[in-house]
Write a structure and sequence with these properties.
The chain is built from six helices and four strands. By secondary structure, the protein is of the alpha+beta class.
Length: about 190
């Protein structure tokens, strides 16, 4: 009789311990492997009573993710600003697994982008890739609303040459005119 009471007590104690452990389980969903970093949706109800945030300081650089405020061609006040933005955008795009090298020339609200794709990437420059490139470019400059993306070798070489012109160009208008000619040859992707 003592053995059966002891076993019953032991089973009740074990059940209580297991029930206690089960309540500490992680209830958050694990991220989907192919999911991209998307901004969470905000309900209109939560933003109704919020105050508007002040506009960003116009003196911030493009690499600081604030949009450059300038009336100069290309949207940047100096060649140095345009060069910094170009480098930052290229680095951001190169973080994509599909891309080996990226050459970027930002101008106004469009970025001219030449891509050398990874050898293991079997796809091409499709809408999905263009969308990812636009998202990466917008992490550097929120004013960019479109990207002219190509992986065609001749066009990529021309874009690379334009990017190198940022170092020795006489003025932004010279560079903007040449970049505008290239953009006309490529369909601009906007979202």
């Amino acid at each position: 009789m003592k053995k059966s009471w002891f076993l019953l007590l032991l089973m009740i104690l074990t059940a209580a311990l297991l029930a206690g452990c089960a309540s500490n389980a992680d209830t958050l969903a694990s991220p989907t492997p192919g999911a991209t970093n998307q901004m969470p949706m905000v309900s209109p109800m939560t933003t109704e009573n919020m105050e508007a945030s002040p506009t960003p300081d116009s003196s911030m650089t493009p690499a600081g993710s604030a949009a450059p405020a300038s009336s100069a061609p290309g949207g940047y006040a100096t060649l140095e600003e345009a060069k910094k933005a170009s480098e930052a955008m290229g680095e951001a795009i190169e973080r994509l697994t599909e891309v080996d090298e990226a050459y970027v020339v930002p101008m106004n609200h469009t970025a001219l982008v030449g891509l050398e794709l990874d050898d293991q990437y079997q796809g091409e420059v499709d809408e999905r890739l263009k969308k990812m490139v636009l998202a990466r470019v917008q992490t550097v400059d929120k004013n960019i609303t479109g990207v002219a993306v190509t992986a065609e070798k001749l066009m990529v070489l021309e874009i690379e040459a334009l990017e190198k012109l940022l170092d020795g160009a006489g003025s932004l208008s010279d560079l903007s005119d040449k970049a505008a000619e290239q953009v006309k040859k490529i369909v601009v992707f906007t979202e």
